[in-house]
Amino acid sequence: MPKPPRSAYRCSECGWETAKWVGRCGECQAWGSVAEAAAAPVGRTAASPVTAPAVPIGQVSVEESQFRSSGVPELDRVLGGGLVPGAVILLAGEPGVGKSTLLLEVAAQTARYQRRTLYVTGEESAAQVRLRADRTGGVHDELYLAAETDLGAVLTHIEQARPTLLVVDSVQTIGASGVEGVPGGVTQVKEVAAALIRMAKTRNITTVLVGHVTKDGSIAGPRVLEHLVDVVLHFEGDRNSRFRMVRAMKNRFGPVDEVGCFDLGPDGITAVTDPTGLFVESHHNQVPGTCVAVTMEGRRPMLAEVQALVTHSASERPRRTTSGLDSSRVAMVMAVLHQHCGIRLQTMDVFASTVGGARVVEPASDLAVAVALASASRGLPTPRGVVAMGEIGLAGELRRVRDLPQRLAEAARLGFQLAVVPTEAGPKRPRSPESWTVEGMRVVDVADVSGAIRMLDLLPDRRRQDLRAVDDNDLPGF
Predict the structure, then answer these.
(1) 190 is in an annotated binding site
(2) Are residues 248 and 106 in the same domain?
């Protein structure tokens, strides 16, 4: 006699299962979400007819899986060339970031190529989507619109319209009848996603699913959803800025280190092919406390200006405020400046930020932060047309950064005149910094942060006298 199926306990939020009841989910840490659910009986599956016989891999045609442009160049850049027929793409982002606007633009551009597109909305009415399409110029005869929240009705629309591109906004609002749970729950999301993926593969329809995110930024719903789809994209942006970025987290058809840049305005969303100027401020006069860093967003170099303000503190505990920078790395840079450069900031209020809402967390921006802090502490501006890049170690040394030629080429293209970079690994360098040119820009490599600050003439007077005395005595290390 077969044993009866044992009951299990499952979390209604994330689908985590356990053999006994607990008050708090061990996966998503939600309270009171674990309930008893009967386990599926274990049986034997018999052999069934195949849909198509197996053939040698060399005889498989790839013509049906060629990239097709989405009409949005920046999105094609992230996807690796465009939309692939039969691919399922999951686009997630915070509320109000512009997911629906971007996908409506993609749907309209696809319809302009005389390819039928079906846009299914479960969050808005058809009239609301039409108003957005009128504002962004997305009305086209080949763009079909349906407002449905039932999975069966969505599948019927797909059968009738037979589109080449399907957009579902969003997968958490679609419910399947006959399946337990409410729309957006673990079981419902699994069933809806599985049905849409099955339809996309059998009908060779490119499908884009919009996903919600939790308060910590992760995709809401079961983790298995990210495994089922072919591409996972994150749509990021600051509410106080019009700049948006699409970042690939998973891509079976292209790279995962590419980002696309967009500008979200009242007339819709437009691609930004050269976003560097958004994060660099043009000062008519030289001001203290500024330095430009070159960061890498995927394979794209982007320049970002770092600003610092150092003032005398009126309290016993000075303030340390950062915006757009990693506060722990800024604190580490301040400690290195104190220990190796003689820049005393322990009694000063320090404010550090970036321009234009840029988020700079790459270690290669450490040297730019150090130069900005040194310039602000002395009240002296950095030389005009200077960029600095390099990771700072606790011993004060500068470590190499990746993709240095691409960073230097981007800085030279934008007209910068001097770049301070770490010394490349190899034979021992002479005591004076070595320099060369890249497209008319002078590049100077230094070994440590004190050498970079000294070269820019930002060291305190006492520290400069100490270093000059050390140089006169011909001691190693300088």
Answers:
(1) no
(2) yes
